[in-house]
Amino acid sequence: MSTKLTVAIPKGRIGASAISLLNSIGLAEVISPKSRKLVFIDREDIRYLLVKSVDVITYVENGVADLGIIGSDNIMEKDSDVYELMDLGFGQCKFSIAGLENQSLDNPNKLIKIATKYPNVTKKYFRDKNQKIEIITLNGSVELAPLVGLSNVIVDIVETGNTLKANGLSVIEDMHEVSAKLIVNRGSYRFKSSIIEDIVRRLEVRLGD
């Protein structure tokens, strides 16, 4: 079925907040949180794809989705060819360096082992600091790495810091602010500008309330 627009929405907390925001401007009301469906079409003939958060950019970059809602951590890590249209005002957290107490990052000649899910963000940040590093890429529970001697520190997304504290870790240095963004495929922005700009205007009015 042909639709006017396709929007990729991540599963999980960011997705729940995204759906709530879209609902507030009369969109995406067809999406049921209890459904196991992955594709929904609403009354404005807009299609929604529910996908893993790390895949949102892939769908948008390849033109399968026109718009996507995703945390800026994923945008920075993937360095993809998409436009960021606006900040959506939720999902705020930070990229931070964390480790055991008394850890120091002040010696550029010392090799620092860093465990992270975000190797590209980490490489760029420490390259700009002229710091020697070795990256150990992990897919989960990076907090464990310093505790067992796999790494000196970690780079991860930090919201409340409770998980760090529970594992005897603390933030050494904040790197970047992170929040949810609305992104668009470059071709879609050119050929579907009218409907996209209408959605952006509606979101701006809602977020400005």
Question: TL;DR?
Answer:
This protein is an alpha/beta fold.
Question: H/E element string?
Answer: EHEEHEHEEEHEHEHEEHH
Query: On the 0-100 scale, what is the average pLDDT?
Result: 93
- Structural class, by secondary structure, is alpha/beta
**Cα separation of the termini:** 36 Å
The CATH superfamily of the largest domain is known as Periplasmic binding protein-like II
**Portion in beta strands:** 25-35%
Give unreliable regions as ranges: none
Main β-sheet, in a few words? 6 strands, mixed
Helical segment tally?
A: 8
Give the CA-based shape.
elongated
Give the arrangement of secondary structure elements.
Blueprint: E1 5-10, H1 13-24, E2 39-41, E3 46-51, H2 56-61, E4 67-71, H3 72-78, E5 83-87, E6 93-99, E7 112-116, H4 119-128, E8 133-137, H5 144-147, E9 153-158, H6 162-166, E10 170-178, E11 180-184, H7 186-191, H8 193-208
Parallel strand pairs: 1-3, 1-4, 7-8, 7-9
Antiparallel strand pairs: 2-3, 4-11, 5-11, 6-9, 6-10
